[in-house]
Design a protein that fits this description.
With about 100 residues, this protein is of the alpha+beta class. The protein has helices at about 5-10, 60-75, 85-95; strands at about 10-15, 20-25, 35-40, 45-50. Strands 1-2-3-4 form a 4-stranded antiparallel sheet. The longest helix has 16 residues, at about 60-75.
Length: about 100
């Protein structure tokens, strides 16, 4: 199964010491949910939130599509991952290259 299809259908993806999950978040006192990408890194045993902007869609499906697009840009090297942690960013950027098709 290709990684985009797996991520969209199952909501998660595992590769080279990382687990990516699509999730929703809401800002404080905001009833609107926004898409997020949560990443678990075995290297430090913690969850991290990808801080790259994900455009808010009009539907849940559009939100997930937008999140997958952000990951695609990172895989293609058009965008650098932002976790506000240089160690995670470096490890993630290297590991995610395995998904490049």
């Amino acid at each position: 199964m290709n990684w985009k299809k797996q991520l969209r259908e199952e909501g998660f993806l595992e590769f080279k010491g990382f687990r990516i999950e699509l999730t929703l978040d809401n800002t404080f006192m905001d009833l609107d949910y926004i898409p997020r990408i949560a990443v678990f890194w075995e290297g430090d045993g913690h969850w991290h939130v990808l801080r790259n902007p994900i455009p808010k869609g009009r539907t849940l499906e559009e939100n997930w599509d937008n999140a997958v697009e952000v990951l695609e840009r990172i895989i293609r090297g058009e965008e650098k991952p932002n976790f506000e942690n240089p160690d995670v960013e470096k490890a993630f950027a290297e590991a995610i290259k395995a998904l490049k098709s």
